[in-house]
Amino acid sequence: MGDPIPDHVPREMVSDFSLFTSPGMQRVSNGDPHGAAARVHAGPPVFYSLHNTRDGRGTWLRTRAKDQRKVLQDPDTFSSNRSIFASALGDDWPLIPLELDPPAHGIFRSLLNPLFSPKRVMALEASIRAQAITIVEKISVSGKSCEVMKDFAIPFTVGVFLQFLGLPNERLDVFVGWAKALLHGDKVQRSAAARSILEFIDELAALRRKEPAGDFMTFVVQAQIDSRLLAENEVRGIGVLLFVAGLDTVAAAIGFDLAHLARNPKDQNLLRSEPERIVLATEELLRAYSTVQMIRVATKDIDFEGAPIRKGDYVCCATMIANRDPAEFEDPNVIDLAREDNCHTAFAAGPHRCLGSHLARREIIIGLEEWLSHIPHFRIKEGTAPITHGGHVFGIENLVLEWS
Ligand code: HEM
């Protein structure tokens, strides 16, 4: 059950549209959560969506890309301070930098930016590609079909992430299990997964304090702000965020992209015959199959196009809605792999713009390049149907592809 409608919300502004519960958003076979999200553009630019968080809270929902950008670029009015992860454990420390507002946000962001720079990502390119090749070669010799998420997208993205953190691949399955339970499990599974992730990060931080290794966690435990080492909760906030931010998102993007190419042979042929188009096509696929819904908390009362947003209200900026805005994109529901000037917000806008976007892009591009160059023309396996879901991060499962 969600919250009741707050007294200040006019009844005529309440909608039962939700990124969690509307038709197409639940876990369904052959669903189209992006198409379902796009339909809100037929309605008003702002409404109150009941049950629009995992816990069933109501949020204001702004549909237009330009209005979402205003929210995301105004952290004084729309704060990111929520302690979502820690609250599952009865604590209240923030994920860093995600749940910090300026000026603290900028201090941590400057500390972390160099680790995710384009130059740093370029240095990882060869090993990211090597991981992709190892996995797809195994798939291509072992038969004429596979389940993309389990066999390719998840092991590939988790492998890259572990390599980034400087960890061996052997605990891959355990990490994937934690990430899944945290993002999609019920309340009990979520808090058990949160505890496991936290224990793991705490242990890793303690180890790197004793035995520095020149990896990401060593950087974090040795980093200084204002001539002091980071506090324990700050190390946790950074470690845990990195653990959860890059796992599901990249795998989901690869899954939606391969599902699109399986269903659209013309697009698949185009990228096969002209692989140099994959870079541009990736931007269109990121736009059309955006996966992240962001939430902000109003810090003061503010009226917006008749919506009386009150201090403490949640405001949702859903990338999958902004990126199908007809005022911003011509024929937004047409997926045109040659679309140019594609100013999408799949990686957000404003100060919290995705720190890992360069890494994510390279992973997706390399993943598609290696898949297409190793696997012949593929389609959704007859008699199977991919399962999709909406929520805070849209996703796809049971994507069984076959080829001959
Ligand atoms: C396709 C893949 C990805 C998508 C669509 C995505 C999307 C986003 C979005 C929309 C935000 C803003 C969240 C908010 O403001 O509430 C964000 C923030 C963030 N992302 Fe990503 N992300 C992806 C991959 C990654 C990867 C691979 C990493 C790191 C390894 C990463 C690390 C982060 C971090 C640390 C933040 C917080 C930035 C800040 O608060 O300043 N992301 N991401």
TrEMBL record:
An example of a GO molecular function for this protein is: iron ion binding
Checking Pfam families in the record gives:
p450
Task: Give the UniProt family note.
Answer: Belongs to the cytochrome P450 family.
Q: Which cofactors does it use?
A: heme
Enumerate the PANTHER family for this protein.
P450, PUTATIVE (EUROFUNG)-RELATED
| UniProt superkingdom | Bacteria
Q: Gene3D superfamilies annotated for this entry?
A: Cytochrome P450
| Residue ranges of coiled coil | none
The molecule here is called Putative cytochrome P450
Q: Which stretches are transmembrane?
A: none
